[in-house]
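Why do we care about 3D structure at all? Because function follows from shape, and shape follows, mostly, from sequence. That is the central idea of this module. The next example makes it concrete: a single protein chain, its amino acid sequence, and then its structure expressed as tokens.
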Amino acid sequence: MNRTGKRLGLLLAILVIGTVVLVGCGSGTVDVPQTKEEVPRISPQEVQNRIGEGKSILIVDARSADSYAQAHVAGAISVPLNEVASRLDDLPRDQEIVFYCT
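And the structure:
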């Protein structure tokens, strides 16, 4: 496995530790968890299963733009953690969103 493949595998493994799922309401506001205990967790396998079932999931890399540029999960978009609150309106309300970070 090449270096990029190893990095992507590591990032996928990190999903288990640093993933939150936010599901937006069609026309309402997004209820953003405020504490660690309120943050729903999802494993990489669960994400893969949901995608395999045809569910539309947006994967968001919440690390720095530099970290994203070095390597990221295939198909993920970059929204650094310090920008999430200001960019919530840019995220779709009709699909599940999975954030990951380290």
